[in-house]
Every structure is written in structure tokens, then in C-alpha cells.
Amino acid sequence: MSSSSNTSHPDLSKLDPLDDHNYKRWSSKVLIFFEQIEIDYVLVKDPPTLLVFDPVEQTPPLPVLVKKNEDEVTKYEKDNKTTRYHIVNHMIDNLFDLFMVHKSVMVIWEALEKKYGGDDAGKEKYVVEKWLGLMVNG
Fold first, then answer.
1. In the Cβ-directed half-sphere of 68, how many Cα atoms lie within 13 Å?
2. Domain residue extents for the chain
3. Band of the pLDDT at 1, cuts 50, 70, 90?
4. Which residues touch 20 (CB under 8 Å, ≥6 apart)?
5. How far apart, in whole angstroms, are the C-alpha atoms of residue 37 and residue 91?
6. Model pTM above 0.90
7. Considering just the CA atoms, what is the radius of gyration of the chain in Å?
8. What is the rounded CA–CA span in Å between residue 31 and residue 50?
9. Among 38, 44, 29, CA closest to 107
10. What DSSP string describes 75-120?
11. What is the mean pLDDT of residues 112-136?
């Protein structure tokens, strides 16, 4: 008998694209998706470096370590491409154009966090102004 997993993953096709007003919700949903498919590490972890022969010490790395390291590098590259694909494809066009040039999803994620995630003062001011406008007009 074969066992099948009933794990359901969120459907990112229903995710609203990132714009200048929905970063907190968007980033939380994207992060949850990446956590569920266990590729969220590429958002915060530097890529592994490939082990190479050291000409100074003249000692090559052990074959077992090389194979494991090559597998880690390959997995990281694949997961980086997957996360980058999902992130840039869930942005409005002007953000897509801005971030598409970056090959590292970690660079994209850090730039988005720096631009949208740091300080909520501007968003709070916007919400208060909107609420006051409703109170005056409503």
C-alpha cells in the first residue's frame, strides 16, 4: 500500500499582488506558504559555498563532504528560484520590474522588508486620516 499525504498547501494563485499598501498581510501569507513547503530558509540564509580543492594545503575535501555540499548547493539554488518566482509573480507590475533583476530571493526579501516592513507610522497616519475622514463625512 502506498501512503499519500493529505497536507494541503495554501493556494498562492488567490494571493493579492504586493502593492504599496498590503505588505504586512502579503508577506505573512507568502512566508506561511514557504514554511509549509519548507523552503523559507532561503529568505534569511546565505547560500552555501561549494567546496573546492585548496592549492595551498594541497588537500582536497573528502568525497563524502563534496557530494553532500553539492547537494546542498543544488537544493539552495532550486529553492531560491522557486521562492523568487513566487515572490516576483505576486507583485504589481512596477514592483515586478524593479525586483526582477535580482537573482537572490534573500536580497529581494530584505529590500522589501526595509522598504515596507520597518515602520508602521506612515500606515497608522493613513488609517487615522481615513477614519477621521469617515467620521467627518459620515
1. 5
2. 16-137
3. very low
4. 116
5. 21
6. no
7. 21
8. 27
9. 44
10. HHHHHHHHHHHHHHHTB-HHHHHHHTT---HHHHHHHHIIIIIS--
11. 68
